[in-house]
Design goal:
- Helix content is about 80%, strand content about 0%.
- The protein contains 14 helices and no strands.
- The protein has helices at about 1-50, 60-65, 70-90, 95-100, 105-125, 130-155, 160-175, 175-185, 190-195, 200-205, 210-235, 240-245, 255-275, 275-310.
- Helix 1 (about 1-50) packs parallel to helix 5 (about 105-125), helix 6 packs antiparallel against helix 14 and helix 8 crosses helix 13 (about 255-275).
Length: about 325
Amino acid sequence: MAHSTVVISAAARTRQSRERAHRIRVWIAWMSALAFCVAVGAYGFDYYRLPRELRPFSDKHELLRPSGVIGINLGVLGTVLFLIIFLYAFRKIIPALGRFGTAKHWMDFHIVCGVSAPIIIAYHASFKFNNIAGVAFWIMLAVAFSGIAGRYLYAQIPQSLNAAKTSYQELEASEEELADALRGQSLYSAEKIARIFAMPSSEAVRKSAALVTLGQMIMLDLRRPFQIAAMRRQASSFGQVIRSFGGLFSTGNPEVERIVRLVRQKASLSKRILFLAQAERIFHLWHVIHRPFSYAFAVLAVIHIVNAVRLGYF
């Protein structure tokens, strides 16, 4: 029994170590993408803001125009990023790719590339969106925004409804601990905490349109940090409020943070269970929209690249 516990503990530590390493890699990817996009934008700012008819007179025109030295390489980089994006779909049909990280790990880098590529392609086009290239860009932008929405929905859906209910029941077991904490102190009233748990009725959610439901989910998530911050401010000293940036971060008060942690967990999971059926429905609808747009962009991108090669821009 003791040996089994040690093995499980070692496996858990290994998973935690891999997740920590993955988070570091994703953070590096985001920071690298941000630094690159900001650097190109800063260098080309005075060129990109010029009217189209004046750009040929700029010293940077030969570099930043779509067929220029920098412009053409930005196009190549944007294309490479979209090839990486499509690897996420190929992972399901190419077993060799499935051995490198989990679906969540691939999704994280899928999002990094999906957000970065439209910005880099916009630099490549020097913000001139004409003809096929322009249509491809706007489709690509739609793909990027829908991808962000899809990632949000993916995070809302547990592996199964039973798994979500089990987790919820486990969390409900800690409600007694929360109630004891509340009875033993005068920091928060039951009414104040109830406001954080306030959500639409299940009947209202069931009858809501897809976009309305998605908006409600996002608004609840956006509102919760400010509700938690208000809880922290109510029970904190002036110095703690300043150090926690108005309650948005930990105050360092163990009693307050313990209650905040329980309230946040329960509010988050309650929302996921309430919206689960609708979230799954919207996620399936999202697949219907996201994939055709992705394939349409791929076709237009190939046509654009073939034309560029045919016209001698490479």
